Amino acid sequence: MTNATGATTYNVTRHKGIQLIQRDVLQDQRLSFRARGILAYLLSLPDGWKTSAAQLSKQLKEHPESADSKAKEGREAVERALRELVTVGYLGRERVQGEGGTWSTVWIFGDDPAAVAEAVAAEVAKRRRALRSS
Which of 21, 32, 120, 126 would bridge 92 by S-S if both were Cys, CB 3.0 to 4.6 A apart? Predict the structure, then answer.
């Protein structure tokens, strides 16, 4: 399921068929458990998945296992968790201009903040080059 109006996501730590998450990430005391859970979920998504804070919230609310539980997260709670991930460096979000002047947000996430920062810079540069050459 993708959301055409959401951000395009790219995971910089990809493994085939299984998602390995470094213990340091899961035990990072700078993050709330909500942020750690959302990062674990994001890491499980394929590259190119389109989502947003609102879409993530909707997915969590509609998940069959959360119907009778407290696993429901509102858009603002999801956005706060995403801001935590940006602050610590596990998520990079950049708005980029595309063809025709349209703007979109690229989310790049992973379990290594240095790799995330490098990937964000590379993706923004790539999109700017593409925009100039079009």
Answer: 120
Q: At what angle do helices 75-88 and 33-43 cross, to 10 degrees?
A: 80
Query: CATH assignment of 7-133?
Result: 1.10.10.10
- Euclidean distance between CA atoms 134 and 129, whole angstroms: 9
Give the residue among 100, 95, 117 at the shortest CA–CA distance from 108.
117
pLDDT digits (tens, 9 = 90+) for 106-116: 888 888 999 99
Q: Is the pTM of this model over 0.90?
A: no
- For residue 3, which of 50, 48, 53 has the smallest C-alpha distance? 50
pLDDT in tens, 5-14: 445 555 555 5
Beta strands in 4-101 (DSSP E): 7-11, 50-51, 91-97
